[in-house]
Amino acid sequence: MAGLPWEVLHPKLIGVKLTGKLNGWASAKDVILYLCGLLTVKGGTNKIVEYFGPGAETISATGKGTICNMGAELGATTSVFPFDQKMVAYMNITDRADLSSLATAQKHLLVADPEVYQSPEKYYDQIVEVDLSKLEPHVVGPHTPDLARPISKLKAEAQEKGYPVELKAALIGSCTNSSYEDISRSAHIAQQALKAGLKAKASFLVSPGSERIYHTMKRDGFLDTFEQLGGTVLSNSCGPCIGQWKRADGVKGKADSIVSSFNRNFPGRNDGISETLSFLASPEVVTAYAITGDLGFDPVNQTVKGADGKEFKLQPPVGEELPAKGFAKGEEGYVEPAADGSNLTVDIPPTSERLQLLQPFPKWDGKDFDKLPLLIKTKGKTTTDHISPAGPWLKFRGHLDKISDNMFLGANNAFSSEPGKGTNVLTGEANLTMAQIARAYKAQGIGSIVVGDENYGEGSSREHAAMSPRFLNVRAVITKSFARIHETNLKKQGILPLTFADPKDYDKIEMNDRLSVPDLNNLAPGKPVTVVVHKAGGDVKIQANHSMTAQQITWFKAGSALNALN
């Protein structure tokens, strides 16, 4: 689209062979939750996850979407299913019959070649087999999407690890789990509870994923069912999934348990409270949790007490993949743009705190990075949520200067007991936010360097997690390893992303060190970089690597990819 070649590291292939068919309480969500536990949040980095096998054809198109959507939690470059009739049915009912006809005519191009299915071990770098017929409902968390276990094992683990079993909130929906199938199965669980005279014991929130699904849920009575159960239907927006949620009973410093059908559960992501223990499960399981309010509840094997005091068992969820009456239409939401926009201007009041025109980042001055202070050495998991928290900060997404005040507020600093705080090593002033420190350095024309741990930048592709450090004059980020998307985002903003050739060198970096990166004029693809760590007792040289291509090096020299485009 920009007139430039598109580059990505050549990925390896993980083949996930699906056999059998989902049944009972198991859903498409459980496929990806199980894989998150098996492969971990780094297991898909620079890899394509390709699903195949007879089980793949039994999963609905929206179920496939749920699985692929959450492939990002594996770090995957992308996830793909072969084209099948489930996709045809979905495209036809969503006014895309012309596309389904085109795809059907070219189906041979949209599925693997026969020899791949016959001898998959020849074509995939790794093969994982999942028998859908034996798959149990899974729950992952807290704090990471790869801490997974079958729901039957969670009660014992909660007791062992001291997770609060009283659930404060249960949330269903979001972009990845508000399909008609998800909602109808969840409503079936809610209807059983209502028939037994029950209401939700935990706060129950429903986030429709689109205007169309909202109106379809309303037409088919699902909204009414959820509201009768005590649920609240929210706007068709990201909402609590990305921190737009001020939890009424949330108290900073107190560990509460919540459960959702969302994708991500990093500390502080949903309600802005880092102590909250956030678990992920399928919408139907989350609905069962809402009814009991008990993290230790296992709907597959346990009973529930009805209003009459009698024990009964929730029957496995039943729903429809697609609405028999088709999807209801909502507001279209699309406004035809002007045919000729060349004379249009964007007027932003200079006093606005919500919007600010972007200014080009300064181009590289051709000089080496010389004795730059360490801004922060992050310890442990450092996601894009830690680097650029959401919640109340989202209102500043159009104002780079304002939103940059949130930089690293959620990150654990190896040299501070309080997340997001550190010391200005030039003045000795402590307990400052990272933004305050970086701004002080920038005001003196000084850049800084960030050091990170494993899989640095995991999570959503949050552009400000790279833009804010660049805006506040971070020149390089050196880590044990990067999450793929964030590493690319750093490159696009003109920040030099390096990895320790020896991960143990991470331990050598201390708060008062200065860091130099010499010989930048000879930066070249595949060529290691020397980093000089200046310590009070003398200099230490360490080796670092980078994955920048020739084109990406031009971005660095231009100051950003956007600068290079101009």
Describe the structure.
With 566 residues, the chain is of the alpha/beta class. It folds into 3 domains: 12-134, Aconitase, Domain 2 (3-Layer(aba) Sandwich), CATH 3.40.1060.10; 138-243 and 252-301, Aconitase, domain 3, CATH 3.30.499; 369-565, Alpha-Beta Barrel (Aconitase, domain 4). Helix content is 25%, strand content 18%. It has 17 helices and 22 strands. It has helices spanning 28-39, 61-69, 85-93, 97-105, 114-118, 154-161, 180-195, 211-219, 222-228, 283-292, 384-387, 400-403, 434-443, 464-471, 484-492, 550-558, 561-565; strands spanning 12-19, 47-52, 78-80, 126-131, 138-140, 148-150, 167-173, 203-207, 232-233, 257-260, 277-280, 304-305, 311-312, 369-377, 421-422, 432-433, 448-452, 474-479, 496-500, 514-517, 529-535, 538-545. The protein has a 7-stranded mixed β-barrel with strand order 14-17-18-19-22-21-20. A hairpin with a 5-residue loop joins strand 12 (304-305) and strand 13 (311-312). Helix 1 runs parallel beside helix 2. It is globular and about 75 Å long.
